[in-house]
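B., you asked whether I could sanity-check this one before it goes into the benchmark set. Here's the sequence:
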Amino acid sequence: MGINPGGAQGATVGDELEPRPDLAWLAALVAAEARAAARLTPEEMLGRGLLRLRLYIGWSQRDLERRSGVDQSTICRIETGHAANVGSARLCAILRALRVGDVIFLPRFPTVEPTALELMLRGDPWKRAVAEAELRVNRRRSA
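And here's what the prediction gave me:
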């Protein structure tokens, strides 16, 4: 992208589209995350997410222990992905202490995109699953 001598910004003939330098870090981060996530187990992905959230808040594992009531060694095992047998009560206590608003689970997307015919016949499976889950949750709440 160039700057015209008249002062107006815009692409000039022959210029190639360049990625915005201020967003290059974001593209690199997303690509690195995708590569790393493909190698992680579900336990490691959960642990990584909790670790990042704890560090974002600025808490130590001891701080999280005091606020959640979950032992620091258990928190360490969860964050490193070595706690496959941790119960949902402990995980919920940690999530409450971290004030988690919403948890979003995403499937590992296939390496090959569905064809237009597959999308036409079956639709987007993720959108269909999200809509069905919302219907089921709302049905339980209204009952």
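One thing to flag: The chain has a mean pLDDT of 79. Otherwise nothing jumped out at me.
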